[in-house]
Amino acid sequence: MAQLEVRELNFYYGFTQILKGINFSLEEGKIIGIVGPSGGGKTTILKLCANLLDVTEGEIQNSFSRSSVAFQDPRLLPWKTSLENIMMPLHVKMKERELQEKATALALKFGLDKSDLIKYPKDLSGGMRQRVSFARALILEPELLFLDEPFSALDIGLKKELQGFVLEACEKQKMSVLLITHDLMEAIKLCDTILLLKSDPGEIVARYTIETPQKERDDALMFERTKAFLEETLIREIFEIKVGA
Amino acid sequence: MKFLAKVIKDFPWFLWSGWGSIASIFLFLAVWEMGFQTYGELILPSPKTVFEVMGTLLRDASFHTDVYLTVKRGLIGFSVSLLLGSVLGLTAGYFVTASVMSRPIVTVLVGIPPIAWIVLAMIWFGLGDMTVMFTVVIASFPIVFTGALQGSRTIEGELKEMMESFHIGFLQKVRDLYFPHLFSYLFPSWISALGMSWKIVIMAELLSSSDGIGASLAVARSHLDTPLALALVSAIIGVLFFIEYVVLEPMKREIESWRN
Description:
The complex is a heterodimer of chains A (about 240) and B (about 260).
Chain A: E1 3-13, E2 16-27, E3 31-35, H1 42-49, E4 57-62, E5 67-70, H2 82-87, H3 96-109, H4 126-139, E6 144-148, H5 156-173, E7 176-181, H6 184-190, E8 193-198, E9 203-209, H7 219-231, H8 233-238
Chain B: H1 2-16, H2 19-39, H3 47-59, H4 61-94, H5 96-111, H6 114-125, H7 129-153, H8 157-165, H9 170-208, H10 213-222, H11 226-255
């Protein structure tokens, strides 16, 4: 079974230690969320796992065959239309016509209009751009999807919709997800395991497992769990929440 | 091919959108006519006279050779500076040291007025083709160089990272990221360099050559032949208009439609 395994990972920028002794493993079809305050090295973990940074100390073993990343900002190529942007990852690997059909179907599923497909990113709204970015990440049918706070700039409706697509792909295609977020509620909604990362240096200080299947997590459960989390001293310390605030 | 078809298809619309410019040209002609009526034939001949002179010019074989010579010199100079500027600029942009070191040199090159270069070129190369082309190259090179330098300095790290996250091969990276990005910097710099070349070639010819449009302009000046001088200037502007609005602008619109 494919998995992503991270062992004793340390990372430095110059003399500053960013990450210290990171250990976790991500199994097929599971979602792991890394939660922590901004600037704590969350994105660094993701970049190391996605092979966008070189591992200097420790070990990352990735036996998933395909992976893709959805970034916090959409990162679309400004000189390509929405459809061309979605097609980009598979451009050399598939026949143009088939690819075009596949990309169109995916784009429509993600709530883009036919007329949006020929537009350039500058003519799309922020939400539309993020849809395109998601479609681009999912057209590869990745076995492992890296999400770097991709929901943080979206409105509630769109957030829910895109989260739904991620959960669907996890269930149907056994896709695994490494989610980076600073939003506890989001992590509680999506993740099987939540890793709590403290900053300076980034270190995993707690692991929580949520047994309830994602489909059965309703608002009541989420609020309850979030409340319980927020009452924990550890979380209060890490997020620097003032007592009584 | 598809691209060319689109350019041609959009062309009538582009022309139709030109009514505003046409109106402003006619307004300019009217002011010119007013100047003629105030100051007289010697100072400012009427547009009508000038266009008549231009008509005879256009039928004159020696004028054709002049135009040919000027265009040839301008184009050779422009091509050399385009090639040199693009290649050197892109390379310089690739290395941090080279880009830091080249900045003051470019500032010096831009700062020296073209007229000074003409004087130097006349000393180095004597009177003739070489002087003219050298001046064109030296004047338009920095424009292309700066464009290319900025282009290769500003390749976005974020987009590059995105491409890497999808394991995109080098060739596709060149086609989908590097080329469009660099081109978006190079193309405008080529256009300004072309305009610059055209102006410099006339000036250099006026001072250092015995043939070409610039030289004819010098002759017109020495004969105090104002209508001929103005006819030549109008011809020069006509060529510039043609290149700018009929060749470059539609291309630019098509190529840069993704821009804000």
